[in-house]
Amino acid sequence: MQTILSSWFVQGMVKATTDMWLKGWDERNGGNVSLRLTPEDVAPYRAEFSPQPRTESLTQGVPELANSYFLVTGSGKFFRNVQLSPSDNLVLLQVNAEGNGYSILWGLTAGGLPTSELASHFQSHVVRKQVTKDSNRVIMHCHATNLIALSYVLDLDSARFTRELWEGSTECLVVFPDGVGIVPWMVPGTDGIGAATAEQMESHPLVLWPFHGIFASGPTLDDAFGLIDTAEKSAEIMVKVRSMGGKKQTISREELIALGRRFGVTPMAAALDVQND
């Protein structure tokens, strides 16, 4: 008999968190992932749900997510351990009918709570669900090394940061034509940073937390992971370019426009209009 441990969503989360740890993006308990599930996704596993689910309140209500199911990484849990014990490091929860709390249906067998960034995740889920007509189901946060490094040396301006990444690798404009949003440094785990991130998520599937990490959204775990992986690869290239003395040549505005035309995407206009120094 198939169990929840062998479900596509638990196995997908195991793979994603393991890959993120192997990339060096999620040291210790850094990073968090949430996957929105449908009633049909979880229906085969109801027999494994806790008979008396623990309930918790939300600091900020999300009525738009009422009754929704989520698979989420746990607070204080190490990504490197998810593959060893998914049931201790992950949690399946359901938002209540009012959207002001949730029930823990499965997971966190040794106790604990979902990620401390749950408020940020939920606020971004609300926005991405709306702007993508329900297709985006994943919010992924990690400490991508080179994106963090660039946040110390580039202007913290969405258009300029996006342009730098587009020039770092030809595929970037095609993968994230809407660019990268940026929020100012804020204390993590608060409703404030969640609201600021969600505001940027209205226009960008990638949002940079300077000196901290990156948030990504996508329809699947692979899509969100691939979005971060592509941006981080470009950031790594640009870190190396800067260490070698800077650019002597790069992809031009006209070439970026041609690239967008060829692949049928509309590039972020403000990033196209950035004037190279």
UniProtKB/TrEMBL annotation:
Q: Which GO terms describe its biological process?
A: pentose catabolic process; rhamnose catabolic process
Q: What is its EC number?
A: 4.1.2.19
Q: What does this protein do?
A: Catalyzes the reversible cleavage of L-rhamnulose-1-phosphate to dihydroxyacetone phosphate (DHAP) and L-lactaldehyde.
For this protein, the record's SMART domains field holds: Aldolase_II
Which protein is depicted? Rhamnulose-1-phosphate aldolase
Q: Which UniProt keywords apply?
A: Cytoplasm, Lyase, Metal-binding, Rhamnose metabolism, Zinc
Cofactor binding: number and manner = Binds 1 zinc ion per subunit.
Q: Which GO terms describe its cellular component?
A: cytosol
> Can you name one GO molecular function term for this protein?
metal ion binding
**What is its EC class?**
lyase
Cofactor entry: Zn(2+)
> Which family does the UniProt entry place this protein in?
Belongs to the aldolase class II family. RhaD subfamily.
| Gene name of the encoded protein | rhaD
List the subcellular locations. Answer: Cytoplasm
GTP-binding listed as a keyword: no
Describe the reaction catalysed, as an equation: L-rhamnulose 1-phosphate = (S)-lactaldehyde + dihydroxyacetone phosphate
Task: List the lineage, top down.
Answer: Bacteria, Pseudomonadati, Pseudomonadota, Gammaproteobacteria, Enterobacterales
